[in-house]
Amino acid sequence: MTEQKNNSWYLPQSITLESVTGTAGSPFTFAIGQSQKEQFTYFDTFDWKLYQRGYSLHYSSGTWVLTQNDGLNTVARASGPLPDKRVFPHEFPRGSLSRILESVCTIRALLPLETVDSISTPVRALNKDGDALGLLLFTSQQAHENNHSLKSVRLFSVPGYGKQTKSIRNLLSSHGIVEKVSLQRNLEIILQQSDRVPGDYTSKFSIQLNTNSTARQAAVTIYKQLLETMLRNEAGILEDIDSEFLHDFRVALRRTRSALSQMKNVLPLEVASYFKREFSYLGKITGPTRDLDVYLLYEDRYKSRLPAPLREGLHLFFTDLARKREEEQEKLVKALNGSRYKGIIIEWQHYLEESTQDTDTTPPVMSLARKTLSRQYKKIIQNGAAITPETPDEKLHDLRIQCKKLRYSLEFFSSLFPEDTISRLIKQLKRLQNNLGHFNDLSVEQGMLHHYLDDLQPEVRKDMDIATAIGGLLTTLHHDQQRVRDEYYSTFKKFNSERNSHLLNTLCECN
């Protein structure tokens, strides 16, 4: 038997195996085989990385199977870790499956979406001599705690019987069996009665603003979406599923704080000032755990920079960081379960819901957008051009923050302007951000390592091994930082181009 590419179709709810095999006047007789039961569980990351790339991953009877959603073709199959509330790509044995999962999912955990009970029944289509002309595989799937049954049929052909395969296909069509099966669609149907919808979360910020809105109406729309992102990630932080929950929470928090500062005179001054203070507190309680998450991701990169004899010292160093991270995570969970955090969220939710009742005398959102973008862009150009080889590192850090604020504003207001113009500006800004971000990361890493060295005890052998490894690492990081700083000047020159200035002036009508 050979399988035709995506020769699988959904069965209308009124159609059964018996109604197909019992078709009057059919040129075939049918031999119904033994049904087989199977249970499998779908997995994906919280932000649907596999789904977005056209993959479907499931686990069944000790085997993980990765399939393409469109053609139903198996991409990779392997044994692996036992399914749990989370599984990481790096836990799979090395092979094609692990390579794809690590490439697509990176550091995100794979989470169980739904467990499905499946019953498959093979049916052979025979001629009058009893020869098999084709195989039909009827399948019925039902998710746990879901009354909706998903029925499909798959056609396998027999070499040399192409005409008969077409006749079998025509027989299926006569029963209204015409809709092609898509594993992407399967997942959507199976999850109908769950609390998840495929693609219901993404870390990318995207919002559609009304050009006729006032500045306050637009700001409230932005704040509500950012708050929703924070709340969607809250449970993942508390359960410590993977580090990206806290990352996305903090990005939404930073965007909120940036908007409160940059969208001037939109909210009442006392309201903006109050929530800036409260959200600053949230930044402080979430910062230590996130910092340690980032440092722990450096382990492999750091080890690759050092000769083998020094790597044991780094192993001890990262073991200590992991312990400290557990301590900080406990503090974070306590804070997020505390009354102050809950009070901030409730107050912010209440204000955003009630703000529409206030008298709104703010200008049109287009006016706010143009003024904000123009001010931020000019500040970056002025401060960026003033940086010389003698400029203290802190000025580059300040410029990085200014670039981040402009990036956030471009994302906030992107729907108000031509997509191609906004996209080009963001692309150019990202290059400068990458340079400044890399410079800042190297600076923060060195600061962290120096601070760690200060707490070591020279008379302790373990601490001496760690100190030796960190010393070698600091040397390589310092050289990297100097190289990145040297690259800043050409990177900034490309950003500070007449073309970018023209793009910004076009957006802001500043000609």
Word description of this protein:
By secondary structure, the protein is α+β, with helices and mostly antiparallel strands. The chain folds into 3 domains: 2-190, Beta Barrel (Hypothetical Protein Pfu-838710-001), CATH 2.40.320; 204-356, CHAD domain (Alpha solenoid); 364-511, CHAD domain, CATH 1.40.20.10. It is built from 16 helices and 9 strands. It has helices spanning 17-21, 49-52, 96-105, 162-174, 183-190, 215-239, 243-262, 269-297, 299-305, 308-336, 339-354, 365-385, 393-413, 419-454, 461-495, 498-508; strands at 2-10, 29-32, 36-44, 55-60, 63-68, 74-78, 111-126, 132-143, 149-157. Strands 1, 2, 3, 4, 5, 6, 7, 8 and 9 form a 9-stranded antiparallel sheet that branches. Helix 10 crosses helix 15, helix 12 packs antiparallel against helix 16 (498-508) and helix 14 (419-454) runs antiparallel to helix 15 (461-495).
Keywords:
9 strands, nine-stranded antiparallel sheet, single chain, alpha+beta, CHAD domain, 16 helices, 511 residues, 57% helix, globular, Hypothetical Protein Pfu-838710-001, 3 domains
